[in-house]
Design goal:
Blueprint (H helix, E strand, L loop, with lengths): L12 E5 L2 H4 L26 E5 L5 E5 L11 E2 L15 H15 L3 E5 L2 H4 L10 H16 L3 E7 L5 H7 L6 H16 L6 E5 L10 H4 L6 H25 L4 E7 L5 E3 L4 H23 L4 H10 L7 H9 L4 E5 L4 E3 L15 H4 L17 H15 L3 E5 L17 H19 L5 E7 L19 E3 L11 E3 L1 H11 L6
Parallel strand pairs: 1-5, 1-13, 5-6, 6-7, 7-8, 8-10, 9-11, 10-12, 12-13
Antiparallel strand pairs: 2-3, 2-4, 14-15
Helix pairs in contact: 2-4, 6-8, 8-11, 13-14
C-alpha cells in the first residue's frame, strides 16, 4: 500500500524554466542559422508580432503571427534590415550563462528546464553533420549546471526550428522533417549522455490547436493543415523516445502541453456548455493521449472524419507510436478557460483573433495585466485529472505571473504580487500531492529571469525572480539584479515547499 505523503518528495525538482529563443541571443554567432523565431518582430498586448519575408522580386513584407496565410508565390521568410527582432539579442544568455546559472544556484535550484536551439546545432536543418561550436556551447552550459548541482531538463524543440526547413519544404507539413528532427535528437542524446537524462520532445505541442507557426513553422491556422503537421510531430516524438532509451536506458522522456487548454469550465450548468467544455479539453488531451498511451483515441479519429481532416497515418506510424510512449507528463499552467455557447457572453478578448481560445470571463476569478485568469485551484484540477488519466509522474514545466515590474530608486523590485501568485499555486500543488495522491516530480517556474515574451515579444511582461535591465525600445545594460521574490523562492526551496 502506498504511504500517504505529507509534503513534496525529498528529491523534488525545484527550479525554473526558459527557452533558448527567448533569452540566448547571439542569433547569428558561431555558426547558428536563422530560426523561425528570428523573423518575428516585436509586438505588444494589442499590436501583434509579425513575420517578415522577401519576395522573389525583392519586395519585402510582413504577416501577422495571429492572422497567418500563405506567402506570395516565390517569397520566403527572411530577416530584413532596419527591423527590430527582440529575440536576436534576447537577454544575451549566450554570453551571461555562467552568471545566470550562478544566480539560479544561489536560489537553490535543483533543476533547470531549458531548451537547445535546433538551428545552433543544424543551421539549415537538413545537414548531415552538426555544428561543433553549437554543441560546445551546450556542453559548457550543462557542465556549469552540473558544477552548481543543477539537473538540466532539456526541451528538444521549444517554439523554434531552422528557418531553412520552412523555406525548403514547409517545415512540419512534410514528413521529411521527421528524419531531420531525429538526426538532431540523436546528436543530442549521444553528445550529452551522462550530462542530461531528462528530455522533453516538444514544448506545448498542443499549440497546434491555435497556431501553426510557433510550434511547427507552419503558416496556417487551419486545422486541416495544422493537425496533419502535428501528426508528424507525434511520430517524431515517439521515435525519439525509443531512440533515447536505446542510447541510454537512464534517459527519461516526457511530453509537454499547455494544460490551460484542458482546464475548461462551462459558463453555467447548461448541458450544452458542459459538453462544449469537454470538447475543448479533449483537443488538448488528444496530444497526451497519443504520447502517453501510444495510439489515436476514437474521439479524435471521429473528429477528423467529421471535419474532413486527413492525416498520413501509416501502419508503421501506429507501431512507432505504440513503442514510443513517454516516461512522464509535463505541462505549463498559467490560467483556466471558461466557455459558453452564447455568442453574446462577455469574452476575455472580444477583438482578438484568439477570442475563442481565451474564452469568456469567469466572474469568480481575478485576472493578470494581460487578462489571464488567476486560478490556483485550476492547477490542482489539472494535476488531479492528468494523474488520474495516465498514472505517470508529472512535471509542472511552467507556471508564473507575467506582470509590469517597477524598479525602486535603489534598484529593488518589490513584487509581492508574484510571490502571492506563486504561493497560492504551490499550495494547490501540495494539496494535489498530499490529499489527492498525485505523483509530482518537480516544479520549474516560468521564467526565473526576465526574458522576451513568446506571445507578444515584450520585455515589459516580466516573469522573473531576476530583473534584467532591458526595455522594449531595445535599450538597457542587461545588468541582472535580484527581486524580492528571489529571496522568497530561495526559502521555498530550502524548506522543500514548507515555508511559503
Amino acid at each position: 500500500m502506498k504511504q500517504i505523503r505529507h509534503g513534496f518528495r525529498e528529491d523534488f525538482l525545484w527550479g525554473g524554466a526558459t527557452a533558448a529563443n527567448q533569452l540566448e541571443g547571439a542569433w547569428d554567432q558561431d555558426g547558428r542559422g536563422p530560426s523561425t523565431d528570428d523573423v518575428l518582430t516585436g509586438g505588444t498586448a494589442t499590436e501583434p508580432r509579425y513575420l517578415t519575408y522577401c519576395g522573389s522580386n525583392g519586395v519585402t513584407g510582413k504577416i501577422s503571427m495571429t492572422d497567418l496565410h500563405d506567402l506570395p508565390d516565390g517569397a520566403s521568410f527572411a530577416v530584413l534590415p532596419d527591423v527590430w527582432y527582440p529575440n536576436h539579442e534576447g537577454i544575451d544568455f549566450y554570453h551571461h550563462y555562467k552568471e545566470d546559472i550562478a544566480l539560479f544556484a544561489e536560489m537553490g535550484f535543483k533543476a533547470y528546464r531549458m531548451s537547445v536551439a535546433w538551428s545552433r546545432i543544424f543551421p539549415n536543418g537538413d545537414e548531415l553533420t552538426p555544428n561543433e561550436k553549437g554543441l560546445a556551447f551546450y556542453d559548457a552550459v550543462f557542465d556549469e549546471c552540473r558544477k552548481q548541482g543543477i539537473e538540466p531538463i532539456v526541451t528538444i524543440s521549444h517554439y523554434e526550428m531552422p528557418l531553412g526547413l520552412v523555406n525548403k519544404w514547409g517545415a512540419w507539413r512534410d514528413r521529411r522533417t521527421i528524419d531531420c528532427y531525429l538526426r538532431y535528437a540523436e546528436v543530442l542524446f549521444r553528445r550529452y549522455k551522462g550530462k542530461v537524462k531528462y528530455w522533453i520532445t516538444f514544448n506545448e505541442i498542443n499549440s497546434m490547436n491555435v497556431t501553426g507557426w510557433l510550434g511547427a513553422g507552419v503558416t496556417s491556422c487551419d486545422p486541416t493543415v495544422m493537425l496533419p503537421a502535428a501528426h508528424y510531430q507525434l511520430v517524431a516524438s515517439a521515435k525519439a523516445v525509443k531512440l533515447a532509451h536505446e542510447i541510454d536506458p537512464e534517459n527519461k522522456l516526457g511530453c509537454m502541453v499547455a494544460i490551460s487548454q484542458a482546464v475548461v469550465y462551462p459558463a453555467d450548468c447548461n448541458p450544452a456548455n458542459v459538453h462544449k467544455a469537454w470538447e475543448r479539453a479533449q483537443k488538448c488531451y488528444f496530444f497526451t493521449d497519443v504520447q502517453a498511451r501510444g495510439y489515436y483515441p476514437s474521439y479524435q479519429l471521429c473528429r477528423y472524419e467529421r471535419e474532413g481532416i486527413k492525416i498520413d497515418l501509416t501502419e508503421q506510424d501506429k507501431a512507432d507510436l505504440s513503442r514510443g510512449t513517454v516516461d512522464f507528463i509535463s505541462f505549463s499552467y498559467y490560467r483556466s478557460t471558461t466557455v459558453s455557447i452564447d455568442p453574446n457572453a462577455p469574452w476575455v478578448a472580444p477583438d482578438s483573433p484568439l477570442k475563442e481560445t481565451l474564452g469568456v470571463k469567469n466572474p469568480y476569478l481575478k485576472a493578470t495585466d494581460w487578462g489571464w485568469a488567476i486560478d490556483p485551484m485550476g492547477l490542482r484540477i489539472a494535476l488531479d485529472q492528468v494523474y488520474d488519466r495516465y498514472q505517470k509522474p508529472i512535471l509542472i514545466a511552467e507556471n508564473g505571473l507575467g506582470a509590469i515590474d517597477t524598479r525602486q530608486p535603489d534598484g529593488s523590485v518589490n513584487d509581492d504580487y508574484r510571490i502571492d501568485y506563486l504561493k497560492k499555486h504551490i499550495e494547490a500543488m501540495k494539496d494535489a500531492v498530499v490529499h489527492d495522491g498525485v505523483d509530482l516530480m518537480g516544479f520549474t517556474m516560468w521564467g526565473p529571469i526576465d526574458l522576451i515574451s513568446a506571445s507578444t515579444g515584450e520585455m515589459r511582461k516580466r516573469y522573473g525572480f531576476i530583473y534584467v535591465d532591458k526595455l522594449d525600445n531595445d535599450t538597457g545594460t542587461l545588468k541582472r539584479s535580484r527581486k524580492k521574490s528571489f529571496y522568497w523562492y530561495k526559502k521555498v526551496i530550502e524548506s522543500n515547499g514548507e515555508v511559503l
